[in-house]
Design goal:
6-stranded parallel sheet; single chain; 10 helices; binds zinc ion; 17 strands; alpha/beta; globular; 7-stranded mixed sheet
């Protein structure tokens, strides 16, 4: 079928809106009419050629929400009309997938950024030539997508679907780091470094868990204002300051039980570790470029402090995303207040305003 999609023809080229051919769903696949898709930094990294495994021309997008329009013969969990979110793919066969560690699939590059289905077939074409996609096995920057039922999550259909997409990656990454990994107790002190979409999701989860105090650190005053609306008890503007850890200890005494690092800056990761009390845990979510190094004081780590990297919030999307939609429905996880909507045709503006920090969470509405 013919679809409208955002295509990138080479590294650092802008997105262009074009007509493509989309293949039919196979037996275990769904045809999803994409209603809206979040954009996260990984899409912009893809556009700029950060992933050598991903050929061009390519269709990106990995936070798609939409409506199932057709199902393959072997699909049992979905029917046309279902509201769905397309989430994090995995190979299902490696040692980590076989032991419920799918967020750490050993074939992650091939599955998310290989440009094709796992068997090497492409989903899109133009004038008979292949266009690469299958980005996170979805490529949601288009009016329709082919999704494997294994990575697709059914969501409630009584609320606007266009706000669910960000749960597929950024939302479950931030909230899962807190609710699935840290598992804080009420009254645990929490700090988040960087309150973009991922950091705010972590902050909302910390509030749900009853953390107190909840401290937000960022360099943008408008993000800190939103963090206060979302439940931060204290905010610190990092701009021009070198005493952020001292400020956190002024608030907490011994330091925090949990810190969440989303900035991907080594000096900030060091602060996130130094803000910990003994037996505290820092979770690293920020994805730094290859070969980025950080230095830490060994005697400081020894009293039970933990530094852990986490991907996709350690989430099991089939249960965790519906849990987050329920929190959204009851107003406990108001991520929609961090969203700025754009039409697909404004995708380059959305990318620029997200990179500059003006927009916290861009979501693209598809033309139908
Ligand atoms: Zn795997
Ligand atoms: Zn993402």
């Amino acid at each position: 079928m013919k679809i409208t999609a955002a295509v990138v023809h080479r590294a650092y080229a802008p997105f262009t809106i074009e007509t493509l051919d989309l293949t039919d769903p196979r037996d275990d696949e769904l045809l999803v009419e994409v209603v809206a898709s979040g954009m996260c930094a990984t899409d912009q990294h893809g556009r700029d050629g950060y992933f050598p495994s991903m050929p061009f021309p390519a269709v990106f997008g990995h936070e798609g929400a939409g409506i199932v329009r057709a199902v393959g013969k072997a699909v049992t969990r979905f029917k046309p009309g279902d509201h769905v979110v397309m989430s994090n793919p995995f190979c299902g066969e490696c040692p980590n997938c076989r032991t419920q560690r799918q967020s750490y699939c050993l074939s992650v590059r091939k599955v998310k950024m290989g440009g094709t289905r796992l068997d090497g077939s492409t989903l899109h074409a133009q004038d008979g030539k292949p266009v690469y996609g299958a980005f996170f096995q979805q490529s949601s920057f288009g009016t329709f997508a082919i999704a494997n039922e294994k990575f697709t999550v059914k969501v409630r259909n009584d609320l606007p679907l266009e706000r669910w997409g960000p749960l597929a990656c950024g939302g479950q990454t931030g909230a899962g780091a807190v609710l699935n990994v840290m598992k804080p107790l009420p009254g645990d002190a929490f700090v988040v470094f960087g309150v973009g979409a991922v950091g705010l999701s972590g902050l909302m989860a910390a509030r749900i868990a009853g953390c107190d105090p909840i401290i937000a650190v960022d360099v943008h005053e408008h993000r800190l204002a939103l963090a206060r609306e979302f439940g931060a008890t204290h905010t610190i503007n990092h701009s021009g300051r070198t005493d952020v850890v001292a400020e956190i200890k002024k608030i907490t005494g011994p330091g925090v039980r949990y810190s969440l690092e989303t900035s991907a800056l080594p000096e900030v990761l060091r602060e996130a570790v130094e803000a910990l009390m003994p037996a505290g845990t820092c979770v690293l979510l920020g994805s730094a470029r290859a070969a980025t190094e950080v230095s830490l004081e060994m005697p400081f780590i020894q009293p039970g402090r933990t530094l852990r990297g986490v991907v996709q919030g350690d989430s099991e999307p089939q249960t965790f995303i519906p849990q987050l939609t329920d929190y959204m429905a009851t107003g406990q996880f108001p991520i929609e207040r961090a969203i700025t909507f754009y039409d697909l045709a404004q995708i380059n503006q959305a990318a620029a305003e997200s990179a500059s920090g003006k927009t916290i969470k861009p979501v693209l509405r598809m033309p139908h």
